[in-house]
Amino acid sequence: MSKENLKRGIIQPMRNVFAKTLALLPLAAAAMTYPPYEIYTGTTSGSPQLNYTKVCDPGRTGEASASYVMMGSHYPARPALVNTAYEGKVTIPAYIGGLPVRRINDAAFIACQKITDVEIPATVREIGARAFSDCWNLTNVTFAAGSGLATIGDGAFTNCISLASIKFPKTLSRLGAGCFQGCAQLTDVHFLGNAPRLVVPEVTDKSVLGEMIFRNYGYYERFKVHINKNTYGWISPYEKGVPEKWPVDFGYMQAHETVAEDGDEAPAEATGFVVVITEIAGGSTAVPDSWPSRFPSYTARFGSDFAASLTKPTGKKDAAGNALQVWQDYVAGTDPTDVNDVFRATIDMSGGTPVVSWTPVLPAAEAAKRTYTIFGRKSLLSGDWTAVPSGQEADYNFFKVRVSMK
Q: What is the distance of C-alpha 246 from the center of its chain?
């Protein structure tokens, strides 16, 4: 028996049984998964025919009251068997029966190993979990101009081993766990807007987020992450380590080269993400003897020898991964006995201009005893940190806030 006939003899019967099983699932799964929504399944005309589901919002009844469409049958993620239902280029319609296509369902095109290109219209807001997982020959994914894509689910492009480059629209805000795991040919990832939130449940060590999104079976691929200047959201890949309880809206990209760009297309220089890190400078001599008495558990944590206690580690780290000592809590105005109370710098964008701030904000009398300096760099690959003149923040890509005693 030939190899091709052997494959037909094994896989085709499995697919036939599989297809019959799936035919029984949509209504039951829909009732279980999306109450109190009503859904109505169908198939597009033309070639290839695509499965879709019309959705009625809660309180609306009857197919004529459907308000939007999801692509793909509505059922739990199916096994990763070879799916030959689609091949070549697949164009997702923007509207079906006058209703906008808002979502590509979970596992909608899983294991469609003959798909090479996918075009996603501007109406799509969400790509479900494993939607294109195991599409081994998928080489191009394009998003229509004006795309409103906001969310990509877990494992959406897992094991797309032929995918070399992808460019996400400015509206993308959430990226699921394992989204690009196993994409061994991936060389360029473009984010045209602010870096999306990396959605990995129950992860406290944010330093592993980059690996959980992009890793290839235990090792890092060397690819470039393309970002635009005046965007923000991820700590730089060049800074090792993050503080305890790093805010969930920040991720961490490690061991990947980044390229800052002037606009949607034109590359500028090899830099990285707009980022704020902190530095607590000085020494222990400025700490008054009365300071430890503010914290009931201070002696239990660090001992009764005041001088020796000031240089003990607190278990905290700054944003560059450096271990902090007790005296640095005095300078920063934080509680040395609380590992979650750390000096943090943040950045917001206002009209395309970065605005740097920090916490805690100390009372005026205490703040007057300290010097807060904002440093900036245009590139992390060249030059050095320099003090940022007031009003010239837009001239820099990277920032650092230093606090020290006067």
A: 14
Q: Which of 294, 293, 292 is nearest to 312 (CA)?
A: 292
Same domain? 323 vs 236: no
Complete edge-to-edge strand list for the sheet that includes strand 140-143: 87-91, 114-120, 140-143
End-to-end CA distance of the chain: 85
317 φ/ψ angles, rounded to the nearest 5 degrees: -135, 150
- Domain-terminating residue out of 220, 247, 273: 273
Residue 312 lies in a domain: yes
Residue 305 falls inside a structural domain? yes
Do 246 and 286 sit in the same domain of this protein? no
Nearest to 243 by CA among 196, 280, 213, 212: 280
E strand map for 336-389: 344-350, 353-359, 370-377, 386-387
Residues 282 and 266 in one domain: no
Strands 197-199 and 174-176: parallel
Cβ proximity of 176 and 209 under 8 Å? no
Q: What pTM was estimated for this model as a whole? A: 0.56
Q: Locate 161 and state its tokens.
A: 């081993």
Contact criterion met (CB below 8 Å) for 101 and 124: yes
User: CA 281, CA 87: separation in Å to the nearest integer?
Assistant: 60
Contact present, 233 and 357 (Cβ < 8 Å): no
Asked if 260 and 118 sit in the same domain, the reply is: yes
Structural domain count of the chain: 2
C-alpha R_g of the chain: 26
pLDDT in tens, the chain (406 residues): 333 443 333 333 333 333 333 333 333 333 334 446 788 888 998 778 898 989 888 878 888 889 999 998 755 445 556 777 788 999 999 999 999 999 999 989 999 989 999 999 999 999 999 999 999 999 999 999 999 999 999 899 999 999 999 999 988 888 888 888 888 888 788 888 776 776 665 555 444 555 567 655 544 445 666 766 656 555 443 333 333 233 333 334 433 455 555 555 544 443 334 456 678 888 888 899 999 999 999 999 999 999 999 999 999 877 666 788 999 999 999 999 998 898 888 776 666 577 888 889 999 999 999 999 999 877 655 678 899 998 888 788 778 899 999 9
**Claim to verify: residue 250 and residue 110 sit in the same structural domain:** yes
